[in-house]
């Protein structure tokens, strides 16, 4: 008979202390049972101070905001959450984690695929937000460029107005029907007078 596959359990860390990383997490939790996958959410806005490489450290310390730890045994995951939640991470006074407590919660019916789906969704949202911000920035740049060009044209026109006298063009208005009839009658009368003069001298 096939042995029943052991159900895995996942615990959630709502906060990750500074200088804590995946290697350290795995080391600390492996004391209680076999650890599977570990994921720590990298902080989006890492301060410049965190990003600087310190003289006594070869690599800069990354900052994480939250994390998920998978245990090969669901029972162990539950026990770890009960045992460590709100407990001091380290009892050694010289430890970086001496004054920090764990914030751990066991996630019932939560599988790693749920985390993968959530992360994929968040990546898609971030990508869409970035595209929107880029499009907005392009629109603003185009408006600014248009306004600059318009301002230059207006300035050029003003300079031209200052150096030259503007002469308005003469626009001939169209004759009215009455004026056209009157002119035709005058022309006809003139022609008739000329004709009579030519006959009678």
Automatic annotation (TrEMBL):
The keyword Nucleus applies. It comes from the Eukaryota. Keywords: Nucleus, RNA-binding. InterPro entries: ABT1/Esf2 (IPR039119), ABT1/ESF2_RRM (IPR034353), Nucleotide-bd_a/b_plait_sf (IPR012677), RBD_domain_sf (IPR035979). It is found in: Nucleus, Nucleolus. SUPFAM superfamilies: RNA-binding domain, RBD (SSF54928). GO terms for biological process: endonucleolytic cleavage in 5'-ETS of tricistronic rRNA transcript (SSU-rRNA, 5.8S rRNA, LSU-rRNA); endonucleolytic cleavage in ITS1 to separate SSU-rRNA from 5.8S rRNA and LSU-rRNA from tricistronic rRNA transcript (SSU-rRNA, 5.8S rRNA, LSU-rRNA); endonucleolytic cleavage to generate mature 5'-end of SSU-rRNA from (SSU-rRNA, 5.8S rRNA, LSU-rRNA); small-subunit processome assembly. GO terms for molecular function: RNA binding. One of its GO terms (cellular component) is nucleolus. Belongs to the ESF2/ABP1 family. PANTHER family: ACTIVATOR OF BASAL TRANSCRIPTION 1 (PTHR12311). This is Activator of basal transcription 1. It comes from Dufourea novaeangliae (Sweat bee).
């Amino acid at each position: 008979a096939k042995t029943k596959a052991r159900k895995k359990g996942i615990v959630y860390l709502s906060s990750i202390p500074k200088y804590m990383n995946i290697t350290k997490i795995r080391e600390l939790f492996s004391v209680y049972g076999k650890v599977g996958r570990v994921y720590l959410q990298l902080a989006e806005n890492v301060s410049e101070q965190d990003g600087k490489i310190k003289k006594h450290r070869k690599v800069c310390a990354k900052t994480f905001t939250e994390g998920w730890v998978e245990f090969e045994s669901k029972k162990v995951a539950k026990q770890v959450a009960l045992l460590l939640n709100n407990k001091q991470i380290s009892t050694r006074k010289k430890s970086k984690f001496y004054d920090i407590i764990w914030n751990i919660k066991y996630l019932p019916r939560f599988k790693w695929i749920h985390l993968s789906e959530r992360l994929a969704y968040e990546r898609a949202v971030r990508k869409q937000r970035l595209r929107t911000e880029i499009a907005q920035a392009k629109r603003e740049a185009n408006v600014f460029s248009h306004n600059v060009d318009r301002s230059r044209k207006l300035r050029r026109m003003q300079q031209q107005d200052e150096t030259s006298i503007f002469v308005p063009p003469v626009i001939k208005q169209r004759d009215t029907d009455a004026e056209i009839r009157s002119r035709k009658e005058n022309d006809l009368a003139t022609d008739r007078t000329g004709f009579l003069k030519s006959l009678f001298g």
